Amino acid sequence: MKVYDVVPGLEFDAERDLAQSPAWFLDATHSVPPWTPMFGWFWINFCRHGMQYGAEKLSLPTVHGWDWRFMNGGGYLTLLLVKSEEEKQRREVEFRKAILPLIKDYDGIWNGFVKEILGRYEKLKELDVDTASNIELLDNFEETINTCRRMWEIHMYMMYGTYTAYILFENMCRELVGIDDTSPSFHRIVSGFDNKVFQVDRRLWEFSKIASDMGLDDVFLKNEEVDIREKLEESDSGHNFLKQFREFLNEDGWRMQRMSEINLPTWVEDPTPALSMVKQFIQKGGSFNLDEERKKISVERAETEKEILAKVPSEQRAWFEPLMRLAQKSGIFSEEHDHYLDLYTHAMMRRSALGLGRRFVKAGAIDDHEDIFFLIPDEVRRAGINPGQFDLRYIVDRRRAEWLEWQKTPNPPAILAEGFDLDQAMGVLVKSNDPIALKVVVGSMPQVRPELKADLYGTCGSPGVAEGTARVIVTEDELHLIKAGDILVAASTSPSWTPVFSMISGVVVDRGASLSHAAIVGREYGIPVVMNVFEGTTKIQSGQRIRVDANLGAVYILDK
Amino acid sequence: MAKKWIYWFDELGADFNDLVGKKCANLGEMTKLGMRVPPGFAISVDGYEQFMEESGAGKEIQSYFHKNSAMMSQVGKQVEASREIRRIIESKSLPNEMAQELRHNYQTLCHQQGTPDLAVAVRSSGAVSMPGQMETYLNVRGKTELERKVTQVWASAFTARAIAFRLEKKMDIAKAPIGVAVLKMVNAKCAGVVLTVLPTTGDLSKVVVEGNWGLGESVVSGEITPDQFIVDKACGTCETTISQKTKMVCYGTLGTRVTRVPDELKCAPCLNPDELSEIVRIATDVETYFNVPQDMEWVIDRDQSFPANLYWVQARPAKYSKVKQNDSQYLADLMSRIFRM
What we know:
Helix content of chain A: 40-55%
Largest sheet of chain A: 8 strands, mixed
Distance between the termini of chain B: 68 Å
Shape of chain B: globular
Oligomer: heterodimer
Number of strands of chain B: 13
Shape of chain A: globular
Distance between the termini of chain A: 59 Å
Number of helices of chain A: 21
Strand content of chain A: 5-15%
CATH architecture of the largest domain in chain B: 2-Layer Sandwich
CATH topology of the domain at 450-557 in chain A: Glucose Oxidase, domain 1
Helix content of chain B: 25-40%
């Protein structure tokens, strides 16, 4: 007997869910390609929880956060709107109090959260998942679930608060200075800051120097990426190098190859992605280009700040300047939170789940330890203490078959109730004034300017002009195809893509807003980024020469 | 022939501050800008000095201070000096020639307005800011009463506080350059202030209008809670707070008195939308002209019809907190607004 056709509130139920909201949007940034059932369970439950927690803690006047559903591996979201004017006004009064701590002590709050969450990770890592008892292991898994839940609370409280400040800054720039977040001088103001993700990149560059000093260049250059580790182990110096490298990974390598999935190894398990970045740095030679770039960008930023402040009436500067400082933290936060929150928590989820997976295999509940990703935590709990008593293969087999099916056809970008079209749905999104919807999901719509005779029109994510060979990348595992000087063309990018930004000369993304990953990282590396071209990955082919003029939001295909 | 000492407002402007005092110069400047100002004239500091000289009051005051200079720093003595000097000034009548000239101007004003014994306001107009010498007499009717009130305004330059102030600033105690404004009383339906900036936050995107029934004194003195209208300069949206207005200031037979607001008016807005938008329009125009936020006083005349019923009695640069008391709270307020778009 089946109680429900789907798990309510987890899987999409057309009848009930379209009655709740007429429009559900696919989160293409995080759930393409389709998620495994376990990762989907974590995301749907806790991203939903975190967004409502953040919206409620800050008493956002117009939204209660988002609701999420899982459909064929895709994450679908809808907004939970505040319905009455009266409630909006009440929430607005509360919001003014709730946002104050972030205005007064942004760094203190963020650093406090980082410390808290790192403490949780350390505790989770204390358990040796191979020698622990089943009870301890299940307990570790439950704590991982709680950590994920807490991670999303921090994530969304910070993100809502940070982006609200950013949007206000953008509005004030428009009002007082006449520039918005598609303007190059706006971008100069919010770039040129160090963050944890860049620090990790810098460490990888340092390892490229160490490798050269140890005479290991050839091992990197003459071998395929997947073979580098094995070949390094063959020599004493290579062995020494790997020892140092593992120490670094144990600290900063708790990240996923794909940001929002747990079925690929972490750097700690498989250092190949990190080693291939070291290889790229050796190939490129020279200094860490981000250092020079950062210096240049920082100088430009300081100059632009002065110009902008001069245009702000003097009596308004007292609040404009602190607002500018807050907005500048948006870029730092956008990158750093991925490192400390998403990537690290997902690495912990994978670690704990695989620990159980190996137990389950030993006890005969499943065939392969990675099959655990086809279960959801309720099923893991059932078999956690006595896996030998349960055969979960029938679930795994069915789910794996479904999952493989999901990979074949892309999920629809939106699920809409009858009589409701995408324009109306986007209108609701914009009207919600939800800061995350505005700055990460929707972005500004490009202006088509026929006089430019461009092949694609987008918005400026990072200023500049570049010409080069297009490289269309669909998934993370194709990143190694990128060569120095290429122009990256993708649906969107995520933090696991950051390292390639040091090699490429420009970026074209189908979707993006000024606080999406490609824009932020592009600005830090000083390369042009054109966003929201919609059809970049379909119109451009790898190997074509293209020219991007981000200042104009134009992309030209030079050899058609 | 004595120096000219009476000026119609349209003869004046901002440059006449030293001659007729701030208030009169300002009324002149507003007249020049084409704003509707209650008709009237200004008595310059030369008028004051001429009176002091010709009436002999000046000499008496000099000798009083000469005799008592040693004890002047005592507060009790200052109060006594104030009483004595004001008695000296108020006991003198206006010298004949001056009285004739003042009457002539008053009659011209009455004639212009078509009202014999026109009710006027007699206001002090100091050339320098000085506390405690802001004596103002409202609803003054007839030439004899006018002469008396003008000398009383001059005498108000010698309140105890004014004496203490001059002493403290090491200014000549015996001298007080003071002008006087004589202007038609507007039969106020309602009156109040308008600021082209939110004074508490320094928010320049808003205009705040406050008003009450009757004369503006109740709003300026801050004794009642007025109606408040906060209007956005860019989009014109208005946040209205209608207060329960229990008291208002009205004319008495002579001078003014505080009366109760009739029940049917207590909770009614004192301005209609047309009047409000006209006030906001002119205030922002004046702000644009001077390029600095304005603090202005307005009166709506009961007897005239819109828009001729709107009078201005004051326009000066607004005082507002430029360095925000609390920038964080201000930022929080601004942030909350982005959810309203």
